[in-house]
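[Automated response] Your request has been received and processed.

Submitted sequence:
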Amino acid sequence: MPIDVEINLRIPRLTIRAANAPDKVIDNSVVRFTRLAQVPAIPKAGEPLQLPARVDGDAIDCVVTRSDWSEEKERFIVSCNYSKKSIAAADYEALVNDAEWTMKPLL
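Generated structure:
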């Protein structure tokens, strides 16, 4: 039976390079991307997780850092890190433009 969880995804900073403009650095250390998802079981720390975020059907690969029960939300919050050292511009654009993902600033 699938379980509804909230995903809390941390992604690395991104540098966008353009031939005719200065490099643009996007610092993602102060934001998290969240969405609701269904998982077959509550993932444990260190486990890989694939999350939909691409129009073409590809998934975003991440690694679970922790899973905690939220009394307030009455569901598990699964915290994840993007699986690679840097994020591709296409993956970043997919997260930003996917209506199911929400960018939340950290307080």
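Summary generated for your ticket: Strands lie at 3-10, 14-18, 21-26, 31-39, 48-52, 59-70, 75-82, 102-105. Residues 89-97 form the longest helix (9 residues).
If you did not submit this request, please reply to this message.
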